[in-house]
Write a structure and sequence with these properties.
Blueprint (H helix, E strand, L loop, with lengths): L1 H17 L1 H10 L11 H18 L12 H5 L4 H17 L5 H14 L6 H14 L1 H7 L11
Helix pairs in contact: 1-2, 1-5, 2-3, 3-5
Amino acid sequence: GWERWSSRLFFWVFLPPSLPLRFWVNVIKNPQFVFDIHKGSITDACLSVVAQTFMDSCSTSEHRLGKDSPSNKLLYAKDIPSYKSWVERYYADIAKLPAISDQDMNAYLAEQSRLHAVEFNMLSALNEIYSYVSKYSEEVGVARGLPGVMVSPG
């Protein structure tokens, strides 16, 4: 009765806002934070739709859609109930898993870091450096003792 319902309520009230909305939505909308890639404006728009769909799928409230609803919400409106059931099943399955120790998690993350240390995209890294230097060229010039020197491409 109450214990099962309150446990389910706990997962729906506290976990969805903290895990998917703070972490996964950020990763979906900003894959360049995790992967060494460049994200263009078209890709950004598409990922925003995917992120919105994900947020709607994790929401416990019902979304009333009408003719004035944003198109990104209308695209996947018919699929949201199915996605919501997947999210509910996901949290139910997590609740059944045994806890992982901090030591095991740290060992796993260290191993993954070691295995993937050589996977690095130099062009993407250079693009990020150039974007930063372009944005702060005045400050870079001042820091190098060359006030007013602008950094130019090429």
